[in-house]
Design brief:
Belongs to the short-chain dehydrogenases/reductases (SDR) family. This is 3-hydroxybutyrate dehydrogenase. With about 260 residues, this protein is of the alpha/beta class. The chain is built from 8 helices and 7 strands, in the order E-H-E-H-E-H-E-H-E-H-E-H-H-H-E. The protein has 2 domains: about 200 residues, 3-Layer(aba) Sandwich (Rossmann fold); about 35 residues. The structure holds nicotinamide-adenine-dinucleotide (NAD).
Length: about 260
């Protein structure tokens, strides 16, 4: 399939799942806009690397997804947005009565509210182009809860609510809105929560991976970023034109249990 002529904006795409999806879309010929909240040489170099590898235009635009005005400015600066991947996300692990208020606010802002702002800014551009795809990266935690992840679970359930609502609002248009619900993918986000999880469960690192993380996934394997990139490509294809307002699980069987 070719995405030549399309521009994809992927929020939070300097590592992990967002970067994997950016590479997959660029590999199919889409021009890509990478994003994060930092503004280092590495960020811009990453975009140049993808441009050279895939022979597409790739840009890095700094914008903090915890701030509504910066979310909207990202889309405005991109200038075109045929494919929007709302991927930026953070996590924090703590019991609800000890959950830092600042962490709660940041998780809701970055994981949920950013998708509201970018969607609102991108839809008029998609309507103008006569085609659009919105892909929200939710989580198995959008369908199931886990102890000590109140803000993340609440935000990801909210992402599914937003996906269904915007999918219905655009159902008669050539725009689709879907959510991907990955199980565990071994990215910096998962690595960062291991020390707190070790504390909460009183376990060592390997035990946390085996008995808390992979225990939930019947496949007993991490999902890979390439698998999620492949699904994003499918959602951009004509074969998925009638697929909207859906939540698609890629979780080794977790949420079927
Ligand atoms: P990651 O930490 O590797 O990547 C997160 C990206 O978001 C990074 O590029 C980071 O710089 C960026 N980011 C963080 N705060 C930001 C901000 N304020 N503004 C802009 N960008 C910001 O994490 P990941 O595991 O690749 O997660 C990506 C998405 O996938 C998240 O929404 C996460 O909730 C979701 N997810 C991850 C897993 C998993 O197991 N890794 C499972 C399900 C869902």
């Amino acid at each position: 399939m070719s995405l030549s002529g399309k521009t994809a904006v992927i929020t939070g795409s300097t590592s992990g799942i967002g970067l994997g999806i950016a590479r997959a879309l660029a590999g199919a010929g889409a021009d890509v806009v990478l994003n994060s909240f930092t503004d280092g040489d590495d960020d811009h170099a990453l975009a140049q690397e993808i441009a050279a590898e895939c022979n597409v235009t790739a840009r890095y635009i700094q914008a903090d997804m915890s701030k509504g005005d910066e979310c909207r400015a990202l889309i405005e600066r991109a200038g075109r947005c045929d494919i929007l991947v709302n991927n930026a996300g953070i996590q924090h692990v703590a019991p609800v009565d000890e959950f830092p208020v600042g962490k709660w606010d940041a998780i809701i802002a970055i994981n949920l509210s950013s998708a509201f702002h970018t969607t609102a800014a991108a839809l008029p551009l998609m309507r103008k182009a006569g085609w659009g795809r919105i892909i929200n990266i939710a989580s198995a935690h959008g369908l199931r809860a886990s102890p000590f992840k109140s803000a993340y679970v609440a935000a990801k359930h909210g992402v599914l609510g937003l996906t269904k609502t915007v999918g219905l609002e655009t159902a008669k248009e050539p725009v689709t809105v879907n959510a991907i619900c990955p199980g565990y993918v071994h990215t910096p986000l998962v690595d960062a929560q291991i020390p707190d999880t070790m504390k909460q469960y009183g376990m060592g690192r390997d035990e946390v991976i085996e008995k808390v993380i992979l225990e939930r996934q019947p496949s007993k394997e991490f999902v890979t970023v390439d698998e999620l990139g492949g699904l994003a490509l499918f959602l951009c294809s004509d074969a998925a034109a009638q697929m909207t307002a859906s939540a698609i699980s890629v979780d080794g069987g977790w949420t079927a249990m």
